[in-house]
Amino acid sequence: MAIRTSASQEVRRLVGDLSLEGPDGEPRREAAIARLAVIGTRAVRQLLEALNSATSSAQRAAILGALEAIPDHRTVEAVRALLGAPETFQEHRIELVGRRQIEPGGVLRIQAGQNH
To answer: Is residue 107 part of a domain?
Structure first.
């Protein structure tokens, strides 16, 4: 029988991959986002913790990308709080526009998911 890492350890590693910088880190960030989407709601708590402690707009954008792929109502308040912080709003808006998650008119669509 093979020994497998726990889901919590895997999520921790994947959340760490979201912080990788530069072009070499991009494929690992994208793979982490895809894997976290598969793990789903079990990853939300650690993603929200990482979002609160993120130190760069690139880290926050990657974490938001992972959260966007997981339909969970817990993410809505965190995103609202983040976007409400005046010092970070423009940074995130620029990151999200670059990823085409904000329409040219400035509309950001936040979907709460099905878990109310």
So the answer is: no
Decide: pTM greater than 0.85.
Answer: no
Backbone angles phi, psi at 96, to 5 degrees: -70, -35
Q: Using CA atoms, how far apart are residues 21 and 59, in angstroms rounded to an integer?
A: 9
Whether 79 is in a domain gets the answer yes
DSSP notation for 19-85: T--HHHHHHHHHHHHHHHHHHGGGGHHHHHHHHHH--SHHHHHHHHHHHHTS--THHHHHHHHHHH-
Longest dimension (CA), the chain: 55
- The pLDDT of residue 37 is above 70: yes
Instruction: Assess if residue 106 is contained within a domain.
Output: no
| Residue recorded with tokens 């993410």 | 75
Mean pLDDT of the 53-82 span: 85
The arithmetic mean of pLDDT across residues 17-43, rounded, is 91
